[in-house]
C-alpha cells in the first residue's frame, strides 16, 4: 500500500486592519494493489476556511481630512463616527465596532478510482469524484450604532450546501506491432450532477432588544425568509484513436458528444471532433546533415472544435416571480396587488457555443538541447456565442439568453528555453514566452442596414452593429469606442467650452462632426482594453549550494479608464483624496482637470506594465553537516512576491489589480501587498 498524508494551516493578515484569512487543509492519498489485475485508490482533500473577519473601510480612510479627529474611543465625542463633523467621510473602524460576523466554509473533495488490467493490453478505469461544500454565514448589525438604530438592529443566518458528483469510465487499449506501429484507443463515458441548496433568514426591528443578534433571530419583528435550490446534469461520450509509426509519424483523431441540462430543450447536446498530426522530420534521412546541431524537430498540425457551456443553469427557461404592483381603477384609486408574472424570456433553441481552431506548430531542440522551444500559429472561429442579448423595451423583457454571431481569433505563441551556462559549480537556465492574440467580430444578429452616399441614395447594405453593447462588425469586442479626449479647456477657450456646458479646467473632447453637440456621431475607435501582447521571462541560477531565481512578466498595450484624473470623485470642500495633479489657471496642464470638474466622457490611460513578480534565494545545507542530525536534506529559502513593477504611463497604484468603481480602475479599494517569505524545507 502507498499512502500520503499532509496537513496545512494558514493564518494570514493583510496590510489593511482586519483583513485576515484562516484556512486548515488536509490531504490523504491511498493506493493499494488487491490482485495482480486490480488496483484501487483515493485522493481526498478537506479544507475549513474562515473569512468572517471585519476589514476596515479603506475607501473611507483615503478621503478623511488630515484635520479630522480620531475620537473613536471617546464614547461622549460627537466625532466618533464623523471625524470631521461632516457626513461625507466616516471613521473606517466605526461600523465594525457594532458588527458581529461568522463566515465559515468547509469543503470535502475526493476521487475514488479502480483500475482493472485485462488481457490483450486492455485497461479499464472507473473514477467517482464527489464534492461537498457547506457554508455558514451569520451577521449582526447592532442597533447601538446610531446609523442603524432606526432599523432596531438587523441579523442574518444563511446556510448553503453544494453537492456535485462525476463518474468517468475509461477503457484503453494499447498495442505495438512489429516494433513500429503503436496504436492506442481510448473510450470515455461521463455523467455528472450538481445540486445547490440555500436558506436565508433575515430580520430587523428587534423587540425588546437585539442583544442576542442572530442567536435569537425570531425576536425581530420584520422577518424575511428566502431559499434557492438548483439542479443541473451533464453527460458525455468520447472516443479517441492514436497511431504512431516508428515515433516519426503520429495521428490522433477524436470525437466527443456532450450534453448539459442548462441548454434549451431543442439543443441540449453537441458534437465536437478533433484531428491532429505530428511529424518528427528531424528523423528523416534528408535531415542527416543536421544531426551535429539539430537534436529534434517536430511539426504539429491540428484542427478541433470544442464547446462552451458557461451560462446560468436556467437561462434557457422562463421563470415566474411575484411582487407588489400598483393598480388604478376607473375612479383613480390606487391599489397594491401581489402579482405573479413571467420574469425572464425563454429560449428553447439555446445551444452550445462552439469554437473551431486550426493550429500549426514546431517543436525544436538545438546543440544537445542547449536551446529548445516551440512556435505556434493559430486561428480560431467562435460561433453561436452565448450572450445576454438586449431587447427593445416594448417586448416586455430587457434581454434574453441567445446564441449570436461569429468571433475570429488569430494568435502567435513563441517559447524559447536555454541552458545558457553549464559548468561544474555554476548553471544558468532561462525560459522566455511571448504571446499575441487578435480578435474580430465577423457577424452579429444578421440584421441588415442600408448604406447611403452623401446624397442619401442607397448604394448597398451591410450587417448592423450593436450600438448599445458596443459590438461592431470587423472590430475587437474590447476596442474602445468613445469620445476622443484632446486635452483640457483653457482660459482662452471659455466661449467655446460654454457651447458644451463646460468651462476652463474641464476635460476637452473632440466634436468630430462639428455640430456643437456631443453624441454617438462623435465617438471614434481608439485603443484596446486587453493587452496587445504578453511575455514572461524566468531565470534560474545555481552556484554550488546556492540557488537564485526570478520571474518577470509583462502585459503591454492595454488601456483603461482613469476618471479620477477629472478630480470630481469626492466632495472637494468636505473630503480629501489621493495626491493628484490638478489644473489651475497658473498650472494649465492637459492631463488632469480642475477640482470639481464636469466630465462628459471618459479619460483613458495606457496601463502597460512590466512586473518583477518573484525573486527566490535558497541555500542547501551540505550533507556532511546533516549526517550527525540524521537529516537527509535541508534547504533554507527567502522569497519576495510582487517585488516591483514599471508602468511608464500609469502612476496611480497597481495597474493590474485595481478595483473597478463605477467602471473606473481604482486601486483605492485594495492595495497590493509585497510579501516576504522565509521557509525551511527538510526531509528525514
Return the domain count.
Answer: 2
CATH architecture classification name of the largest domain: Beta Barrel
What is the class of the largest domain in the CATH system? Mainly Beta
Structural class: mainly beta
What low-confidence regions span 5 or more consecutive residues with pLDDT below 50?
A: 659-669
- Output the radius of gyration: 32 Å
Describe the structure.
InterPro entries: Beta-barrel_TonB_sf (IPR036942), TonB-dep_OMP_SusC/RagA (IPR023996). It comes from Sphingobacterium allocomposti. It is found in: Cell outer membrane. Residues 659-669 have low confidence and may be disordered. This protein has 2 domains: 38-45 and 97-450 and 529-683, Maltoporin, Chain A (Beta Barrel); 58-92, no CATH class. The protein has a 20-stranded antiparallel sheet, with no helix packed on it. A two-stranded antiparallel ribbon has the order 12-13. A two-stranded antiparallel ribbon has the order 18-19. It is 2% helix and 56% strand. It has 684 residues and is mainly beta. The two termini are 20 Å apart. It is globular, with a radius of gyration of 32 Å.
Amino acid at each position: 500500500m502507498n499512502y500520503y498524508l499532509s496537513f496545512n494551516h494558514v493564518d494570514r493578515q493583510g496590510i489593511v486592519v482586519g483583513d485576515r484569512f484562516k484556512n486548515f487543509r488536509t490531504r490523504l492519498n491511498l493506493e493499494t494493489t488487491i490482485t495482480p489485475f486490480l488496483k484501487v485508490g483515493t485522493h481526498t482533500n478537506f479544507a475549513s476556511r474562515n473569512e468572517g473577519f471585519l476589514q476596515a473601510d479603506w475607501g473611507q480612510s483615503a478621503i478623511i481630512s488630515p484635520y479630522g479627529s480620531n475620537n473613536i474611543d471617546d464614547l461622549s465625542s460627537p466625532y466618533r463616527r464623523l471625524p470631521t463633523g461632516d457626513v461625507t467621510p466616516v471613521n473606517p473602524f466605526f461600523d465594525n465596532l457594532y458588527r458581529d460576523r461568522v463566515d465559515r466554509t468547509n469543503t470535502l473533495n475526493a476521487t475514488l478510482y479502480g483500475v482493472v488490467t485485462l488481457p490483450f493490453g486492455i485497461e479499464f478505469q472507473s473514477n467517482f469524484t464527489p464534492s461537498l461544500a457547506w457554508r455558514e454565514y451569520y451577521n449582526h448589525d447592532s442597533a447601538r450604532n446610531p446609523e442603524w438604530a432606526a432599523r432596531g438592529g438587523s441579523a442574518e443566518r444563511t446556510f448553503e450546501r453544494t453537492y456535485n458528483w462525476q463518474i468517468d469510465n475509461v477503457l484503453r487499449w494499447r498495442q505495438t506491432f512489429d516494433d513500429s506501429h503503436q496504436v492506442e484507443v481510448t473510450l470515455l463515458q461521463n455523467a455528472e450532477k450538481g445540486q445547490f441548496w440555500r436558506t436565508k433568514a433575515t430580520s430587523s426591528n428587534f423587540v425588546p432588544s437585539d442583544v442576542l443578534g442572530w442567536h435569537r433571530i425570531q425576536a425581530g419583528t420584520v422577518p424575511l425568509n428566502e431559499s434557492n435550490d438548483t439542479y443541473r446534469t451533464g453527460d458525455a461520450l468520447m472516443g479517441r484513436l492514436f497511431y504512431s509509426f516508428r515515433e516519426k509519424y503520429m495521428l490522433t483523431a477524436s470525437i466527443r458528444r456532450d450534453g448539459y441540462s442548462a441548454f434549451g430543450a431543442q439543443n441540449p447536446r453537441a458534437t465536437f471532433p478533433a484531428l491532429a498530426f505530428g511529424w518528427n522530420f528531424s528523423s528523416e534521412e534528408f535531415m542527416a546533415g543536421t544531426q551535429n546541431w539539430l537534436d529534434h524537430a517536430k511539426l504539429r498540425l491540428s484542427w478541433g472544435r470544442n464547446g462552451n457551456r458557461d451560462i446560468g443553469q436556467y437561462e434557457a427557461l422562463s421563470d415566474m416571480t411575484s411582487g407588489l404592483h400598483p393598480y388604478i381603477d376607473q375612479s383613480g384609486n390606487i391599489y397594491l396587488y401581489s402579482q405573479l408574472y413571467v420574469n425572464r424570456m425563454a429560449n428553447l433553441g439555446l445551444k452550445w457555443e462552439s469554437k473551431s481552431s486550426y493550429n500549426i506548430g514546431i517543436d525544436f531542440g538545438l546543440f544537445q538541447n542547449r536551446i529548445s522551444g516551440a512556435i505556434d500559429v493559430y486561428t480560431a472561429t467562435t460561433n453561436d456565442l452565448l450572450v445576454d442579448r438586449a431587447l427593445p423595451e416594448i417586448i416586455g423583457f430587457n434581454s434574453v439568453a441567445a446564441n449570436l454571431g461569429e468571433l475570429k481569433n488569430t494568435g502567435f505563441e513563441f517559447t524559447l528555453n536555454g541552458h545558457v551556462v553549464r559548468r561544474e559549480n555554476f548553471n544558468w537556465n532561462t525560459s522566455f514566452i511571448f504571446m499575441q492574440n487578435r480578435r474580430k467580430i465577423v457577424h452579429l444578429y444578421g440584421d441588415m442596414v442600408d448604406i447611403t452616399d452623401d446624397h442619401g441614395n442607397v448604394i448597398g447594405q451591410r450587417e448592423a452593429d450593436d450600438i448599445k453593447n458596443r459590438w461592431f462588425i470587423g472590430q475587437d469586442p474590447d476596442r474602445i469606442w468613445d469620445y476622443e479626449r484632446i486635452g483640457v479647456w483653457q482660459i482662452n477657450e471659455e466661449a467655446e467650452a460654454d457651447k458644451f456646458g463646460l468651462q476652463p479646467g474641464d476635460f476637452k473632447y473632440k466634436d468630430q462632426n462639428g455640430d456643437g453637440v456631443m453624441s454617438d456621431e462623435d465617438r471614434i475607435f481608439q485603443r484596446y482594453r486587453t493587452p496587445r501582447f504578453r511575455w514572461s521571462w524566468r531565470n534560474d541560477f545555481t552556484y554550488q549550494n546556492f540557488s537564485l531565481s526570478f520571474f518577470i512578466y509583462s502585459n503591454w498595450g492595454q488601456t483603461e479608464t482613469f476618471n479620477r484624473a477629472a478630480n470630481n470623485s469626492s466632495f472637494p470642500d468636505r473630503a480629501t483624496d489621493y495626491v493628484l495633479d490638478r489644473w489651475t489657471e497658473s498650472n494649465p496642464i492637459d492631463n488632469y482637470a480642475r477640482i470639481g470638474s464636469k466630465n462628459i466622457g471618459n479619460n483613458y490611460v495606457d496601463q502597460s506594465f512590466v512586473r518583477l513578480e518573484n525573486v527566490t534565494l535558497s541555500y542547501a545545507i551540505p550533507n556532511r553537516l546533516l549526517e550527525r542530525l540524521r537529516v537527509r536534506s535541508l534547504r533554507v529559502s527567502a522569497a519576495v512576491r510582487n517585488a516591483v513593477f514599471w508602468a511608464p504611463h500609469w502612476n496611480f497604484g497597481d495597474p493590474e489589480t485595481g478595483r473597478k468603481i463605477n467602471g473606473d480602475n481604482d486601486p483605492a479599494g485594495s492595495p497590493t501587498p509585497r510579501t516576504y517569505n522565509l521557509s525551511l524545507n527538510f526531509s528525514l
